[in-house]
Amino acid sequence: MTSHLPSAIQCIQTPNGVLYELPRRQIGCLRFLALPMILVGIVFIGAGLYPLLIESGLADWALRRTGKPFSPFHLLLGLAFVGVGTFPIYFGWLLAGGYSTIELQDDRLIATQRHGLVRWRRTIPVSAIKRFQVKSSDISESQLAVDSALSALNVVLADGKLKNLAWGYPKTMLKALATHLAEEYVHLYYGAPLLDQVDPAAMVEERTLGQNRLPETALDGDGTDHDENTIPPLPAESTIRLEEHDAGLTITIPPVGIRKGAKGLFGFAIFWNVFMAVFTALWFGSGGIKAGWELVIISGFLLVFWSVGIGTLLSSINAGRRQAILDVVGDTLLITERNLFKTRQTEIPRDNIQSIRMGPSGTEINDTPIMNLQIRLKKGKKIGVLSQLTNDELAWIAAILRHALKVPAR
Question: Are residues 167 and 192 in the same domain?
Answer without folding.
Answer: yes
